[in-house]
Amino acid sequence: MVKIHILPIRFYQYNRTHRRKIMLARTILWVCVLTWLLGVTVLAQDKSQTTIKNVPVKETSPTSGKDMYKAYCAVCHGNDGKGGGPAAPAMKVPPTDLTLLAKNNGGKYPSLKVVSSINGETNLPAHGSRDMPVWGQLFWSMSHGHESEVQQRAVNLSRYIETLQAK
Fold first, then answer.
1. What is the C-alpha separation between 98 and 162, in angstroms, rounded?
2. Using an 8 Å Cβ cutoff, are 117 and 139 in contact?
3. What does the pLDDT look like over 73-109, one tens digit per residue?
4. How far apart are CA 15 and CA 96, in angstroms?
5. Residue from 108, 147, 153 nearest 135 by CA
6. Which of 10, 61, 75, 82 is found 20 to 30 A from 89 (Cα to Cα)?
């Protein structure tokens, strides 16, 4: 013998209304989550508008530290050396303010340290994995293996950066 349970109509209507409310709440929740995701995506795209393009290195005279600085350094460090170059906003770590090197070194310009940084001999956390880029390697290829020219470039570039020091 099979028993058939007949639920009162009120219980069935209550259960159906309750289910509709739950479905409506879920729908509203999903709309909110999707709206939030869309907003995050749009904000992420706005921040990534600044990109750094890799372009071939233009060879400059090894005797002009100023020309080398403008060609190789100013894009990140800015023409004034304060770290406000056009590529700076795209960097995870802001470029160093090169005008403060002497001040941060007890008033003495750290020329050996700067030459080492230019050549890629020191690890600079702000430049990630020694990708300043490492101008020493690029200078080496420009000079076709003439070590004296590589050193001349690094020293002259360092001397120009020394002229940017805050007084």
1. 9
2. no
3. 888 899 999 998 888 888 788 888 999 999 999 999 9
4. 66
5. 153
6. 61
pLDDT number for residue 162: 95
Q: What is the C-alpha separation between 150 and 56, in angstroms, rounded?
A: 18
Burial bucket for residue 135 (CB in 10 Å: 0-12, 13-18, 19+): buried
Exposed (0-12), middle (13-18) or buried (19+): which is 64, by Cβ within 10 Å? middle
114 touches 165 (CB < 8 A): no
Residue 45 main-chain phi, psi, to 5 deg = -70, -40
Own/partner contacts of 100-104, CB < 8 Å, gap of 24 or more, are 100/165, 100/166, 101/161, 101/165, 102/162, 102/165, 102/166, 103/165, 103/166
pLDDT surpasses 90 at 110: yes
Per-residue pLDDT at 130 exceeds 50: no
Q: Whole-model pTM above 0.70?
A: no
